[in-house]
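Hi there,

I know you've been waiting on this one. I reran it after we fixed the sequence typo, so this is the corrected version. Both the input and the resulting structure follow.
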Amino acid sequence: KSIELMQGFNLPGGLLPLKDIVEGGYVEETGFVWLSTKSKQQHHFKRADRLCKYDELVTCRMEKNKVKDIKGVKAKDMMLWVSVNEIVKDDNKEPAKLHFKSFAGLSRSFPAEYFNIEA
């Protein structure tokens, strides 16, 4: 269901590669999403060469081409774990790019295809 949710907002299906989801939901009026898993998880996005950590509860607000107010997701960047606050897809570039932003003002961009289901 998380894959379908991402794709429904024009985002790569592999963006939140959570396993063992025990509960999840989507509030259409506000775009609020929550996904609860059995335990904390890690995933290495090979093509982007980024390691990410996911808490047992991940929440966010979704819009077309955007995930904002993200809670429960961190990415390792230059030996530090940085909270990911927002992900924005830019379809105006070829190939499409995903821009990852943190509260600390750090941002990184990668081709969106790096986060497809097989990535």
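Quick highlight: Strands lie at 21-27, 32-37, 41-45, 50-63, 66-77, 80-90, 97-102, 107-111.

Best,
R. S.
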